[in-house]
Amino acid sequence: MIVLELFLTFLEIGAFTFGGGYAMLPLIQDAVAAHGWMSTEELVNFIAVSESTPGPFAVNAATYVGSTVGGFFGAVAATLGVVLPSFVIILLIAAFFMKFKDSAIVKGCMSGLRPATVGLIASAVVTVGWSVFSAALAGGGGALSLPFLSAVVIFCGAAALAFTKKSPILIIGLSAVVGIAVGYAGELLG
Amino acid sequence: MNKYLKLFLTFAKIGAFTFGGGYAMIPLIQREVVDRTRWLEEKDILDIIAIAESTPGPIAINTATFVGFRVGGVFGAACATFGVIVPSFVIIYLVSLLLRQFSSLPPVRYAFAGIRAGVLALILRALWSMYKQCPKGLIAYVLMAAAFLVAAFTDISVIFIIIVCGLLGLTASLLAGRKVKK
Q1: Which of A23, A177, B21, B164 might form a disulfide with A57, Cβ 3.0–4.6 angstroms?
Q2: Which of these three, B133, B153, B172, is where a domain ends?
Q3: Chain-chain contact of B115 with A127 (C-beta, under 8 angstroms)
């Protein structure tokens, strides 16, 4: 049953993501690949959507994957699943255990979890990079083809903007404009 | 206004107006929850961030649950959490319907081909800021490299990697602690 499967998968993702934002990306990538729910390409498209719409990445991602795979109820199930672990854990901490953050055990675990998150996101960069550049090469023409060169140019430009802290929405907008221009230029060139 | 409705509306506003999620949400939460409603004090925000960083799940949800519970118990926590979710749920649900409708049109396809290369840069930027915030040290570098290699080049589940790294971090810090005591 797809709705239950979505709920359980996102429950697991919600319970094992430490750190906000993109920390969840490697887990979502792993889960959608394991279930065959979505390609890396579709997931990367979604990241752009999430960056350009309000709200936490986790909720956006759960709603998007859920609705793509299982319609409205799939979206509800995935979103509830991703939220539930942190809801329950925070309730328990707020009610009984405010000393939680000072606990040596918690600090010890976090000293391993934080570098792990960095390593996992680095692997997401590799997977996404592979999907972006191999798709650009798939049309033939090798490294001098229009799609590949434009992907390199967009990536370098976007990186320059991202590392000077320009807004992600601006970066996505510009990338889209260049992408459209390159796409139609490609059609004209045959 | 009813306390629960106010929690719901305040967090719906926070959910509707933060782009990027995570830490981007902190200043807005601070303004709404400390300056305007006086539900919490400044130092509570620091506590929440510290707790959110060491518990699973998105910071926005952690904060909403925490503030909601402080103000209105378990039901208050549910109202605030529901509030922070609803705007992004509705928006993403509608966008996903539109995307399915239009994703095969050439201009949309071209746009996303460009966007994917741009998003790669955004993820790289996120990686860089997480790396900067991460505590450094020999064990940290080893875990970083191990997590990267295992995730990138094997089929081992990411959750398994996370559990193992958490336990290794715990073991290492307990051993280091014991050494100091002697």
Answers
A1: B21
A2: B133
A3: no
Give the minimum alpha-carbon distance from A39 to chain B in angstroms, rounded to a whole number.
Answer: 13
Count of domains observed in chain B: 3
Question: Can you give the pLDDT at residue A157?
Answer: 93
**Residue ranges in chain B modelled with pLDDT below 50:** 182
B83 and B129, same structural domain?
A: no
Q: Which two tokens stand for residue A124?
A: 């997401």
Q: Do B93 and B41 fall within a single domain?
A: yes
Of A6-10, A51-55, A88-92, B86-90, where does mean pLDDT reach its minimum? Answer: A51-55
Cβ within 8 Å of residue A106, ≥6 positions away: A100, B54
Q: The complex's ipTM?
A: 0.86
**What's the burial of B98, exposed, middle or buried (CB within 10 Å: 0-12/13-18/19+)?**
exposed
Least CB-CB distance to A183: which of B84, B106, B120?
B106
The pLDDT of A71-92, averaged and rounded, is 94
Do B65 and B54 share a structural domain? yes
| pLDDT tens digits for range A143-185 | 778 888 889 999 999 999 989 888 888 888 999 999 999 989 8
Where in the sequence is the domain holding B114, given as residue range(s)?
104-133
* B8 and B95 assigned to the same domain: yes
* Beta-carbon count within 10 A of A25 CB: 27
- Chain B residues in contact with A124 by the CB 8 A cut-off are 123
> Taking CB atoms and an 8 Å limit, are B95 and A53 in contact across chains?
yes
**Same domain for B146 and B176:** yes
Contact criterion met (CB < 8 Å) for B162 and A12: no
Residue among A15, A136, A179 minimizing CB distance to B115 = A179
Q: Closest Cα partner for A16 from A126, A109, A128?
A: A109
Same domain membership, residue B97 and residue B13: yes
